[in-house]
Specification:
Elements (H helix, E strand, L loop, with lengths): L11 E6 L3 E8 L2 E4 L10 E2 L2 E3 L5 E3 L1 H4 L9 E2 L10 H8 L5 E2 L9 E3 L2 E3 L1 H20 L5 E6 L5 H13 L3 E7 H10 L6 E9 L4 E9 L2 E10 L4 H16 L3 H6 L1 H17 L5 E2 L8 E2 H26 L8 E5 L6 H11 L2 E3 L7 H13 L7 E5 L4 E5 L3 E6 L4 E2 L1 E7 L9 E7 L9 E8 L12 E7 L5 E7 L4 E6 L8 H10 L4 H31 L5 H20 L2 H36 L1
Helix pairs in contact: 3-4, 5-11, 6-8, 6-9, 9-10, 13-14, 13-15, 14-15
This protein binds adenosine-5'-diphosphate (ADP) and magnesium ion.
């Protein structure tokens, strides 16, 4: 074969899917190329998705431009919602200018007009945009990617990220931690260095601190800590609060006026950035004035919170703070001088900040992609899991099977037994988190080991094994050792796309993934709607004694609509009908509860 006539080598890209900005990069013969649309344009794509009246989607700068004019249909910071349920987010949702659907423990949906979107779909749109962007620039089809996540992302959030990639038509070869990626970028030219570094990453929505050792090309993560709800957005909110207080704008006024809310938010961000290089923002008698001293006062507490996390990370790494040679600064918010100053003075180490803090993560992802493509054998990455994994045992206690900061991939198991004579089923509920009671941790899923041969309590020997892959995503296997009864599951995040289903979709062809998801989404919506219809009939039956004629006919009308939608509707119209039904019926449910209480009290007085 003559050189130059080979088919083009497949490019595997690295993607930083950020809360605020996303970007894509790849390595060309060892050189990182950060993709931008055209000469002079930006490598950063705002992680903003705008949805037009006709349902068409706009991503990036064009979407960001509509944040003020059409806040209710312009979705920002969607990464914060990935893998989260409404109840996780209810405190935060008031800060948003778009609408979340309150379905308690179900995965969040975002409502725009009569359409409903999951954060996975919206993140998928951002990834699709990046995929198109790099395809346009390289003239090559891109099918494989490495995507980064905050080190502190839990299993649900990692899976949601991977699923978003699949929706965008990307085979996600690896999910890697952002700080680890950043350290790869710094290691690029320093294979022979032998040092311990702290990566401090404060972006738009998340904070991560990672301590790692670089030794002859091996990146050994010692510990990681952080907060998935701490970042530049929160700094903006501190400024907003400050201004609202001085201008007497109440929370209600803000909530009712979305345009006001969006414009103050953008102004606050502008002020914050300006103060990274200047002592004042605006003029002293401007409404929106801010000086550096006031600003520093506002953010001191937030910086202190991040330093507390740094202390925990140092402790978990089992090293002395003085052993840390360098602090690597990552993320746009580390441009704030006070942050750099305070963090550096805590670590008393040299700052590593000569790479663009916006780009180091994507660059690192591209390096990891290059390693996976087999082009680079000089580096090896040893990452850790950020949170402990365990199962629920008697009394709702968390029994940790894999402690946090364990190197991944990793497998570990433990034996359990039954507590009742003749017990044939055993429920295994899997949790992630550091608290002693499972109710304080995040539930990842549960399954039942069935067909255990009946034996006296305590005799069966049930091995529960956790298998954690290099993405930090877990499978669980349970086996009764005497009978070899076995069950295995991929811990299926509550967003309800199982690994099997995903695998099938991939096999079917990556291009079909989107269609498959649509089919699945409609099946899910139908099932949910059917359940609502059933429970509504039951509700009418149990409460007909006090339901008024209007209430009764209203309920029946909604049931009819739902039944109709189940028959003929699509995902969005079914979701809308369910939403309408919920809106109509929740005051009735409240009333039903009052009735129950009333009749209970009545019973008492009779006694
Ligand atoms: P993410 O990884 O979460 O997308 P980035 O690393 O892109 O975040 O950082 C975005 C955050 O950095 C935003 O909150 C933005 O306002 C903030 N930021 C960007 N530039 C500056 C600056 N010069 N001074 C202060 N904050 C900045
Ligand atoms: Mg980032």
């Amino acid at each position: 074969m003559k050189s130059g006539e080979l088919t083009k080598k497949e490019i595997i890209v690295g993607i930083d899917l950020g809360t605020t900005h996303s970007l894509v990069a790849y390595l060309d013969k060892g050189n990182p190329i950060m993709i931008k649309e055209s000469h002079g344009s930006n490598t950063l794509v705002p992680s903003v998705v705008h949805i037009d009246e006709d349902g068409s989607v706009v991503v990036g700068d064009e979407a960001k431009a509509r944040l003020i004019t059409q806040p209710e249909r312009t979705i920002y910071s969607v990464k914060r919602l990935l893998g989260k349920s409404y109840s996780d987010m209810s405190a935060y949702s008031k800060d948003l200018a778009y609408e979340l659907i309150d379905e308690e423990d179900k995965m969040i949906k975002i409502k725009v007009d009569d359409r409903f979107y999951s954060p996975i779909e919206l993140s998928g749109e951002i990834l699709k945009y990046l995929k198109n962007r790099i395809e346009r620039v390289t003239g090559q089809e891109i099918l494989k990617a490495v995507i980064t996540v905050p080190a502190y992302f839990d299993d649900n959030q990692r899976q949601a990220t991977r699923d978003a990639g699949k929706l965008a038509g990307l085979d996600v070869l690896r999910i890697i931690n952002e700080p680890t990626a950043a350290s790869l970028s710094y290691g690029l030219n320093s294979k022979d260095k032998d040092e311990t570094i702290a990566v401090y990453d404060l972006g738009g929505g998340t904070f991560d601190i990672t301590i790692l050792q670089m030794h002859e090309g091996v990146f050994d993560v010692l510990s990681t800590n952080g907060d998935t709800f701490l970042g530049g957005d929160d700094i903006d909110n501190l400024i907003i609060e400050h201004w609202c207080k001085s201008l007497n704008i109440t929370e209600n006024q803000l909530a009712e006026n979305l345009q006001l809310k969006s414009s103050i938010r953008l102004k606050a961000e502008e002020a914050k950035k300006h103060l990274s290089y200047n002592d004042y923002y605006g003029k002293q008698d401007d409404e929106f004035y801010l000086d550096l001293e006031t600003f520093n006062g506002l953010i001191e507490g937030l910086i202190e919170t991040t330093i507390d996390k740094c202390k925990e990370a140092v402790k978990d790494a089992e090293i002395e703070k003085s052993e840390i040679d360098k602090v690597v600064f990552v993320g746009g918010s580390t441009r704030i001088p006070l942050i750099k100053k305070n963090v550096q003075s805590y670590f008393e180490a040299e700052a590593f900040d000569d790479l663009n803090p916006d780009e180091v993560v994507a660059m690192g992802a591209a390096i990891q992609a290059d390693i996976l493509a087999g082009n680079n054998e000089d580096f090896l990455l040893l990452d850790v899991t950020p949170l402990s994994l365990g199962i629920e045992t008697l009394g709702g206690l968390m029994d940790v099977i894999i402690p946090r900061n364990t190197k991944i991939p990793h497998a570990a198991g433990r034996n359990y037994t039954t507590s009742v004579d003749g017990q044939t089923n055993l429920k295994v509920a899997v949790y992630q988190g550091e608290r002693d009671l499972v109710s304080d941790n995040r539930k990842l899923g549960e399954f039942i080991l069935k067909n255990i041969p009946p034996m006296p309590a305590g005799i069966p020997k049930i091995e529960v094994q956790f298998i954690l892959d290099a993405d930090g995503i877990m499978r669980v296997r349970a086996k009764e050792l005497r009978s070899e009864t076995e069950t295995e599951i991929q811990i299926n995040a509550t967003h309800g796309i199982s690994e099997e289903e995903m695998g099938r979709m991939l096999l079917d062809s990556i291009q079909n993934a989107e269609k498959d998801m649509k089919v699945k989404a409609i099946l899910e919506a139908r099932n949910e709607a059917k359940a609502i219809v059933r429970s509504s009939y039951k509700f009418i039956d149990q409460n007909k004694a006090w339901l008024s004629e209007v209430e009764l006919s209203g309920l029946n009308a909604h049931i009819k609509t739902l039944e109709n939608e189940i028959e003929k509707g699509d995902k969005d119209s079914i979701n809308k009908a369910m939403h309408d039904m919920n809106t109509f019926s929740s005051p009735l449910a409240q009333k039903a509860m009052d009735e129950v209480i009333k009749s209970a009290l009545k019973g008492k007085t009779l006694e």
